[in-house]
Amino acid sequence: MSVETFQVPDLPQEPGEVRLFAHQVEALEAIVRGLTLRPGQSAPNGLRVTAQMATGSGKTYVGAAAGQKLAPRGVVLVVVPTLDLLLQMMGEWRRGGRAGEMHAVCSLVRRELPLSVMASTSGRQIAEWIASANRRRQPLTLFATYASVGAVEDAYEYAADRGRLLPPLDLMVCDEAHRSSGHIEKSWAVVHDNGAIPALRRCYMTATPRVWAPPKPGVRRREGADQPLPEEMACSMDDQSIYGPQVVSLGLAEAIDRKLLAPFEVVVLELRDPGADPAAAKRQPVPWGPGVGEDENGEEDLVPAEQIAAIQAALVKVIVERKLRRTITFHNRTIEARYFSETLNQTVDRLHTENPAKYPEEFWAQWLSGEHEVDFRKETIGDFGTAEEDEGLAHAVLSNCKVVGEGVDIPNADAVMLQGRGSMVDIVQAIGRALRIKPNEGKTASLIVPVFLKPGEEPGDILESDSYGPLVKILSAIRSHDARVVEALAVPQKSGKRTTGRSAEAQMAPGEGEGDGSAAGGFSLPVRFQSKVDEDVLALFIQARVLTGENQLWREGLGHARRWHAENGNLDVPYSARVGENGVFRLGEWLTQRRVEFANGELARHRVKMLDDLDMIWSVSDARFDTGLDWARLWAKEHGGSLAAPARASIGGYAIGGWLAGLRAAAEVPEGEPGALAPERKAALEEIDPWWCPRWPVTWQRSYATARQWWLESDGRVDWAGLSVEREFEGEPLGRWVRAQRSGFAELDQEQQDLLAALGIEEDQELAAARAAAAAKPKVSRTDRFAAGLAALAAFVEREGHARVPRTHKTEEGLSLGTWVNNQKARRDKLSAEQLGQLEALGVAW
Region Disordered: what ranges (predicted)? Predict the structure, then answer.
């Protein structure tokens, strides 16, 4: 493969210092915790965890930070799907703080790689890299594609054949890990085999742990399933024996709610198929025509020219009406991407002629495919981002065929057009690239989906028509990013936000339910049709075509609430409570969302009465504290019973650190004064952790909690005095902290000493004895010390004939005379006139 195929990035020679955001810190802590071997724990198959992070939320930097935290001087293998992404990943890991050598396990040649990076698929060479790094205790990071990772297996086989024991990898990070599952590529299963590629830890990272294929008609919901599932998936990472537990779950809706991504909408272009119904096509309310242009061989029939012209006209209309600046169109064939781009401005010109006040004379239009050389691709992508500034064109359209994929940086796009063709994995990836939008821009991105209606079908007939297959595919792909977003559309509730006519939208009420009972937050997915589509109709369409059965969240939630009330006599349900068969329904979250709706006046009266009959607790303030308290219990459970969370800490998207910091501040206010923490709330927190609000810094308490966790998991049998100073636990420098406590034991608060003593951490007796001996010595005054130094200096002058005392000179009595003289010079301003005179008399030069 030629060098022109790849963009060769610069690789920084020194590690960077990327500051992680709160959600990334939360993810890093969960990964480190999941990949930390507990005292007495064995993991013959290696520790494994899965981290789901929405596209654009920075999982690459989290992976790099995990590599530094877990293997700062070890060997890390990073596996990615493509060579483009491999090259990009090298630079991002370096910028993310990864030090040491970096090499590629692939077929790229030297000129295709950054400086200082070597590439090889030779088992012998890879074995030498690993052995050398281990011998020198230097960090090494290997980057491989799923197609080339078998060469690492060859390295271990090479070493074994020669009687050498090659150490296991300290960490393997599998990016876009869904590519290693299901039916995608069975040959990539070697990344899971600890016998083939030994690794102490594996971290599987993805935005889409499940990729749904559109369900077959008639498939019903599976009994006991956590959420409606189709009969088949393109891929699934549910097998914990392979992928380990999912320790991070940051879905698309949560990322949007946390302003990490901009919200988006689905825009459906309902068009007439010109080939099947020419007469009806003429009545379509958007201009269109046969189009012009042909491929190099003059075979015009290789592209559906009339359909493309219809899509172009509808797309231009949407771009202008929504003021979209940059749009990317995805095509399965190079000739179609080229044809679409080269004829687009003819359609624009025709619309401008008919309505010059609305449509501009020209769009920026260009196309790309994998056959283009890297310089042209780079230049074109750059022009796409600056078309308005450089050429004065307000709208830019980039048509591509398998170029804008994994590992390709593109300018911020307002919209993408997807025709629902190709594999589900490709469609999911295209949407993922499109949603990488700069956060906090205050705009909504558009996913544009053209559909062609058959003769006799009318726009809006989504239940009866089979022509909406592309929409089904796109919604299924969005569901792969975050199932809750799409499943919520199957539970309509009038929100008062829906308009009518051509701009009608089907939109769910904020937070209305999902198939697994979790809250989708404030983001709701608008699906906009050219025609009027009722919410209930859209819900049925989602249920019948995208999901696998009717979603009756309200009835299901109310049923679980009734059973809880019957068993407990109240609805005081913890936020994290899961009920039902196998605990698949999140009743606590469901009730919390009902409280929010009630406070906002969005909950129907008859539903309010149903919950009142069950003694519903409506106080939002109390509910918020109860919600925080429940998250606090979860945090304490995962952190050795401690609530010493950092201020920026979060769990499950909940800002537990800030919540606790605010309560600590309130606890400092005297009881009865405004802002003081209520006694019952303080007692509730102390029940979880008596030291949640200590007199000493909370950072000390957090380190103590780490030591206590180590002690607990060691069954209380720990030789603290013999603990290595290099010992780390869950990313914390446990050994250094324990040594500092033992050496500074006497300066600690009495209660801190008691806490340490409860774990068997005592004062360093040798150090204590030395301090006691020093304290027993009679103290020498500064005047006496000056007199002793002066006498030693006089003896030196008498013996040597000058006062130029070498800095390292010591007397027979052990006095550092050279240092003493220099100190007197440094503090000349603090010496008395008599002392100055005495020194000058001995010949001290100032």
Answer: 278-298, 494-518
Locus of tokens 């709330």? 681
Burial class (CB in 10 A: 0-12, 13-18, 19+), 687: exposed
In this structure, the number of other CB atoms found within 10 A of the CB of residue 301 comes to 8
pLDDT in tens, 26-76: 999 999 999 998 887 778 889 999 999 988 788 899 999 999 999 999 999
Q: Quick check: helix, strand or coil at residue 424?
A: helix
Let me know: does 199 contact 169? Beta carbons within 8 Å: yes
Asked if residue 76 lies in contact with residue 173, where contact means CB atoms within 8 angstroms, the answer is yes
Q: Comparing C-alpha atoms, which of 103, 83, 78 is closest to residue 11? A: 103
Coil/strand/helix, residue 218:
coil
* Separation CA 497–CA 509 (nearest Å): 9
Give the closest residue to 455 by CA, choosing from 705, 334, 242, 278: 278
Integer Cα distance of 422 and 330 in angstroms: 10
Q: How far apart are CA 116 and CA 8, in angstroms?
A: 13
Can you tell me the distance from the alpha carbon of 739 to that of 720, in angstroms, rounded to the nearest whole number? 8
Cβ neighbours for 418, distance < 8 A, ≥ 6 positions apart: 330, 427, 430, 431, 447, 448, 449, 470, 474
Q: How far apart are CA 477 and CA 431, in angstroms?
A: 8
Q: Are strands 505-506 and 527-528 parallel, antiparallel or unpaired?
A: antiparallel
Tokens encoding 765 = 């007796």
DSSP codes joined into one string, 597-637: HHHTT-S-HHHHHHHHTTT----HHHHHHHHHHHHHHHHHH
Average pLDDT over residues 732-757: 91
Helix axes 587-599, 553-568, angle to 10 degrees: 110
Enter the tokens of residue 783. 């005047």
Helix or strand run (H / E) with residue 47: strand 47-53
Largest CA distance in the chain: 121
On whether the CB atoms of residues 715 and 708 are closer than 8 A, the answer is no
- Judged by average pLDDT, the poorest of 522-531, 625-634, 774-783 is 774-783
Q: Is 16 left (phi over 0), alpha (psi -120 to 50) or beta?
A: beta
Cα gap 447→461, rounded to integer Å: 20
User: How many helices (DSSP H) and strands (DSSP E) are in the chain?
Assistant: 28, 19
> Are 621 and 627 within 8 A, CB to CB?
no
CA distance 745 to 132: 42
- Exposure b/e, 610-635, CB count within 10 A at least 16 = b: ebeebebbeeeeebebbbbbbbbbbb
Give the Cα separation of 77 and 95 in Å (integer).
Answer: 17
**Alpha carbon distance 790, 316 (integer Å):** 94
Q: Which two tokens stand for residue 65?
A: 């930070």
Residues sharing a CB contact under 8 Å with residue 572, sequence separation 6 or more, in sequence order? 617, 626
Which comes out higher in pLDDT, residue 148 or 767?
Answer: 148
Secondary structure of residue 142 in the 3-state scheme: strand
Sheet bearing 201-206, strands edge to edge: 101-105, 140-145, 75-80, 171-174, 201-206, 47-53, 246-250
Distances (CA, A) of 284 to 254, 271, 502, 836: 39, 7, 13, 104
Spatial CB neighbours of 717, under 8 Å, sequence gap ≥ 6 = none
The share of the chain scoring above pLDDT 90, in percent, equals 31
Identify the residue whose tokens are 């050496």: 743
pTM reported for the whole predicted model:
0.65
Q: Are strands 264-272 and 527-528 parallel, antiparallel or unpaired?
A: parallel
Which of 529, 515, 524, 511 is CA-nearest to residue 603?
A: 511
